[in-house]
Write a structure and sequence with these properties.
The complex is a heterodimer of chains A (411) and B (249). By secondary structure, chain A is mainly alpha-helical. Chain A has two domains: 227 residues, no CATH class; 154 residues, no CATH class. Chain A has 16 helices and four strands. Chain B contains nine helices and ten strands. In chain B, strand 7, helix 6 and strand 8 form a beta-alpha-beta unit. Chain B has a six-stranded mixed sheet with strand order 6-7-8-3-9-10, sandwiched between helices. A four-stranded antiparallel sheet of chain B has the order 2-1-4-5. Classes of the chains: A mainly alpha (411), B alpha/beta (249). The interface between A and B is medium-sized, with 21 and 29 residues.
């Protein structure tokens, strides 16, 4: 199997046009779009509003007071300014007029719902054209919901213990009162210590990176996904050429079996892809100062899964078509349709939600979402497990079709 | 009488409604050069593909070196070499790299593969072009490489499907000499060609196929004798007499 893979690599290395196409050409694209995005980037600090319709003294007031920017000069580069606004309609109008990108609004019954455990709904209002802001504000809202939800579980458990221990009576009013008291104490303690509540700090920092961060952090992963898939898909042409040149038949008459040949072809394609991603990331880090985020390991695993999936697609494609020309055409068409659909040319989260849903039919979308989560939103490995699993599923589907076709079709 | 190294019995192969091979049976003795002749579409290549384990027969049995192709294909593959009708080479690799690669595919280690590659390149008169890229070789040189690859691993039986098609007389002559040399070393060869004088020169026995069936099988002399005078008659006369003069496309 390795001999076949090495042979393919040897042929690849000798093909200067292929080397240019697989390595140099993608970087020309990256350079172009990197500088375009660099020019579009702004140093202006983003401003987000935090709005609550709740009466004074409610829990939401305590949260937004903690989040509010007290001293802009102390903000780190890229961190947005948070402004507290009490009037929902005014904030809404500012978004409508284009004076504000968006805001997060707490409902009037936030504290009530938190204490009764019925669950509160945060509202994210955002300018329809401000995709980055929508993603950022959604991220903040999700973080708040997640953290408050987690604290609510702890509070509920504490209250239950108090009830079971007979410290408070088991009636609704006493339970709600105890819940409110614990919530207030937690928030007050966070205010006194001056520390940021954990649910706010994390996402604010990462949100800042979206706008003023390095364009390479989303340009390189996008083009990596596109070109790794593209290069692998075009390999299908080479596999078909092997069939048309009768070398595949010759191999079948030698002492190797079909599975070994298929494995060798697959391995050759995958190794080429791995070399490609290695060059992408090394060059990205050295020359474009790419930040792999909080979990570089997850970025690497996701990249490898992308290569494995793309290679399976290439072999599948080669087993489905008859001629070299149809393999090449289908590879290019597939790659060029799936790249924009899957968020290789622009971040998926700036697209309308229905298009984001449609995009999930492409492996590109899963890979790009994973890279964006890791490199733009500071997610860790656990957060991209769904994306990784999706790529594994695509690999299994493509691989199964390839094996079935290779076994049953005449050479 | 030498023992049979290959025995094919009642082979059938159809592609959809077309019967490419229809009840072919023959045997080849060890060390024999057996010619398989026939017009285009007679079923020669399909027969070779079945014998070389690439294509599965619809029915019938093939035994090579005591192993059933159907049941022990891998054992059979270790005994055979194939020189296909079309060139089956990696044009971007050198002659040496092609030979070593296919030698390794036949189970040789790198050192043995290199040694054999050097030997066969010399045999084919290509030792000076060992490092040359195959894409830049002439048609005759490519044909010789194509044959040399079939010999890697020192197979006991080699299928040669029109190995001399479209090449110059010098290259053709070198291939003839090579084949005769291989036979003298005990190699068994199944040979197909459209050049009747070539078959007459090289083959110990010949089977003529048409319409997926063997319509005649004997030594060249015996086949020619069927037309009366074996000294004056040519194999081409026999061939045309048996298969007719209508064009086959």
């Amino acid at each position: 199997m390795w001999l076949i893979a090495l042979k393919d690599l040897r042929i690849f290395v000798k093909d200067r046009a292929a080397l240019f196409f697989f390595i140099i050409f993608p970087f020309m694209f990256i350079l172009l779009f990197y500088f375009l995005n660099l020019g579009a980037a702004t140093d202006e600090r983003l401003t987000y509003y935090l709005v609550t319709s709740e009466a004074e003294g409610g829990l939401s007031h305590q949260i937004i007071n903690l989040m509010e920017t007290k001293n802009e000069s102390q903000l780190k580069p890229g961190e947005p300014v948070f402004v507290v606004e009490s009037n929902f309609d005014e904030a809404y109008q500012k978004v409508k007029d284009g004076q504000l990108s968006g805001f997060i609004a707490f409902p009037a019954d936030f504290t009530e719902r938190m204490t009764t455990g019925s669950g509160a709904q945060l509202e994210v209002v955002v300018d329809a054209g401000a995709g980055y802001d929508r993603a950022a504000l959604n991220g903040i809202a999700a973080a708040i919901a997640s953290q408050v939800g987690a604290e609510q579980i702890v509070i509920k458990a504490s209250v239950s213990l108090l009830v079971e221990g007979g410290i408070i009576p088991p009636d609704e009013e006493s339970i709600n009162q105890a819940t409110r008291q614990i919530l207030a104490e937690i928030t007050a303690e966070q205010s006194q210590t001056g520390g940021e509540p954990s649910f706010i700090g994390f996402d604010i920092e990462r949100v800042g990176d979206i706008e003023s961060g390095n364009p390479a952090d989303y340009v390189i992963p996008g083009y990596l996904v596109m070109f790794v898939f593209f290069a692998a898909a075009v390999t299908a042409e080479a596999i078909v050429r092997e069939r048309q040149n009768n070398t595949l038949e010759r191999l079948l008459a030698s002492s190797v079996n079909k599975s070994t040949i298929l494995g060798g072809v697959y391995t050759g394609t995958a190794v080429r892809g791995l070399i490609q991603i290695l060059i992408f990331w090394v060059a990205g880090i050295l020359f474009f100062k790419v930040d792999l985020g909080q979990s570089p390991l997850a970025v690497i695993i996701l990249s490898i899964l992308m290569v494995i999936m793309s290679s399976a697609f290439a072999v599948m494609l080669a087993t489905l078509v008859r001629t070299q020309r149809s393999a090449g055409s289908l590879a290019r068409v597939t790659a060029l349709i799936l790249a924009p659909l899957g968020g290789c040319w622009w971040p998926l989260f700036i697209l309308p939600e229905w298009l984001q849903t449609v995009a999930k039919i492409s492996p590109h979308a899963w890979a790009n979402t994973g890279f964006n989560k890791l490199m733009l939103f500071g997610a860790d490995l656990g957060a991209v497990v769904p994306e990784m699993l999706a790529l594994v599923v695509f690999t299994v589907i493509f691989g199964a079709i390839a094996i079935w076709r290779f076994r049953t079709s005449a050479v | 009488m030498a023992e049979d190294f290959l025995v094919a019995t009642d082979l059938h192969k159809s592609f959809h409604d077309f019967k490419a091979v229809n009840g072919v049976s023959f045997s080849i003795a060890k060390g024999e050069i057996f010619g398989l002749l026939g017009p285009n579409g007679a079923g020669k290549t399909t027969t070779i593909r079945m014998l070389s384990t690439v294509l599965e027969a619809d029915s019938g049995e093939i035994i090579i070196g005591g192993h059933s192709v159907r049941k022990k294909a891998e054992s059979v593959r270790a005994l055979i070499g194939v020189c296909p009708q079309e060139l089956a080479l990696y044009e971007d690799l050198s002659a040496m790299e092609n030979l070593i690669f296919f030698g390794r595919m036949d189970g040789l280690n790198t050192r043995d593969a290199r040694a054999q590659a050097e030997e066969y390149l010399k045999l084919m008169g290509l030792q000076d072009r060992a490092k040359g890229r195959v894409a830049k070789f002439s048609g005759g040189m490519k044909r010789r490489i194509n044959l040399a690859i079939a010999l890697m691993g020192n197979p006991q039986l080699v299928f040669m499907d029109e190995p001399t098609v479209g090449i110059d007389p010098q290259s053709r002559n070198r291939i003839y000499e090579t084949i005769e040399g291989l036979q003298s070393k005990g190699m068994t060869i199944l040979y197909t060609t459209h050049y009747m004088e070539e078959a007459d020169r090289l083959c110990d026995r010949i089977a003529i196929m048409d319409g997926g069936k063997i319509i005649a099988m004997d030594t060249p002399r015996a086949l020619k004798a069927q037309l009366g005078d074996s000294e004056k008659a040519t194999l081409e006369d026999v061939f045309l007499n048996l298969t007719g003069r209508s064009l086959r496309d």
